[in-house]
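I have a small job for you when you get a moment. Can you supply me with one protein entry, sequence and fold together? It will help me judge whether the discrete encoding reads sensibly. Write everything out right here, beneath this request:
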Amino acid sequence: MSDDTEPQKTVRLWDFPVRLFHWALVIAIATSWWSNQEVMIDIHALAGYSVLALVLFRIIWGFVGSSNVRFSSFLAGPGKVIGYMRKLPNGSVRDLTYPGHNPAGGWMVIVLILLVAIQAISGLFASEDTFLFFDGPLVAYVSSDVASTMNFIHHTNINLIYGAVALHVLAAIFYLMIKRENLIGAMITGVRKVPESIAAGFMQIRFASPVLGIAILLVCGLAVWGMVTLARG
């Protein structure tokens, strides 16, 4: 928890492309869930293609984006993660000191990216012949056994996504209510207030061009659209 008596300074934290990715992914996953419940398979497919494009973007942005969103900046070793988790319950660790993801949060990002990537990719090869009557755009290129396996993965992996999302939301609530650190607000505005004594660390963040980020996202979207269009041929 931060020291409220210390002067605060507003610092930039998250770049626009990563914030756009975050909330677009939230909308895409929510739309995917809703369209599945309402048996609106065309919308469900579009949501899945959007997820795939977003995942492709985040992977690329993890190498060329702002310094604090690159994978190399927030993927910590097991020792640091365990040490962080041990200190978390007693409040002796301050997330305000991390100019990006904390050691545990960094790995949660990877887990979420992997899970949604598996979901989107398996959907491309899945064949649903019960009440949806839908074939993924790449199902014609694999055997029936592979399509069946992908269908099983698609229906099973979504539960892991729900669990990971629930954990992510609970963690954000924990930080807001217990540690008094508004991680959600920072992901919306891109800025946060930190004690002046640690603000220098945030000033060292090298922000990538938002234009570059939007361009990469558009290219990823076009790549997925082109792949689906050619496959449907």
The two ends are 56 Å apart (CA to CA). The first strand starts at residue 8 and ends at 12.
